[in-house]
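agent> call fold_tool(seq_1)
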Amino acid sequence: MLLAQAVLVGQQLVAQVTATPSSSETPPPLKEIGHVHTSRLCSVLRHSLFPAVAGLRIDDDMIGKGQTMMQKTADDAALGATSAQITGGAGAGSEMDNFQLGVLSSGLARNLGKIEALLNDAGSFQTDPTDDDGRMLSAAKARLEAVAARQRVSLNVLSATAEINSANDLRAQRDIIPYEHDMSGAQTPAFTPITLPDALAAARKATGESELDVAPAMVPIAEACR
């Protein structure tokens, strides 16, 4: 998605920074523009910033798949409504949808945790930068953190859908008693699917807007390491 700008605009610049030399080659020195600290700038770009960008792009793909899965969850629940009323459960198709949404949400959460760890590395980013390099790194960090925060909203929507649906399914299947034999007069509640497509669409839109700010912060750093 929009994060690709941060890679495509500076693709050739990044290749010089992130390329891994073969065992027979001597690693090229990082460029220094009159300051020793420039090597730190390029090291953080290679070891923290670009891995974070790559992770956020993977997240975008996962969230896109999650949106498709959420729609399938709603469709399968609607198709299985009749049997769900009889059994009190979601039906096999909807149960599998909830399971797959849960797996995707767990994977997305793990990936976001890794990205946040990269951006929280005190050795890479200064709390109060005192030089231009530090300020550039802090600006890039802040913009990537903004994207990660927006992606976490999408994660919350996806995981909530999976968890609420699974809980509703268990509730509907609990102590199933045919209505005509239920002396209390209470009927087992049918499975009620929960999907939040509008909430996810809004979260994805907000993420895309925050991604627009990434390339302007990343490209100057890549330029300095060219």
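agent> call fold_tool(seq_2)
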Amino acid sequence: MRLQGRVARLERVLPPPRAPSPEELLREERSIKVLRRWCKLLREAVPLMSGAEQEQVDSALRDVKQGPYKDWLWHLEIGWSRLPVIKPEAMKALLLTWLSPQVDDLSRVCKRCGLEYPSHKSPPMSEWKVLPGKRPLEGLPPWYDLPEFFHACPGCGASRYEITYPHLVWDQDHPWKKLDGYVGAPR
């Protein structure tokens, strides 16, 4: 009886959390599906990697919350990107590219499929070289010879200029937000 009394007093001071809404439960279910897909794609990509590459990926996975995949996984969780079904070769390329010290802080999200993929760091603007026959900001890009990891979306092949940035996704309407592999924005 004393324990029940203490629990009752505690609940008056700090009530138990409310039950999750149906939307929150659905979002959690989608989140689990996306994480399972990510793991499945990882397992399919591993046989394509050399032993050294497998070691690098394994090392990065030891600390998922602080390692090189943390932003990608977090962006999937909060609805800033989507994980479509991609080929094992594309997953391998993504897993290895995220490990590069040349990954920029601002990644890309494909407007066509929702896949997030890393951008390459750019050199200082003073070192940018205009491509032969181009004039900056005239005509279609590219205008400069800058390093790139991917010349097209590794998921669907869309142009690398057909992108948005993760932090802008919530405010934009994209058809891929209605497809599987997208967790959705939290409420």
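agent> summarizing second result for user.
Residues 22-178 form one domain. The beta strands are 108-110, 116-117, 163-164.
agent> awaiting next instruction.
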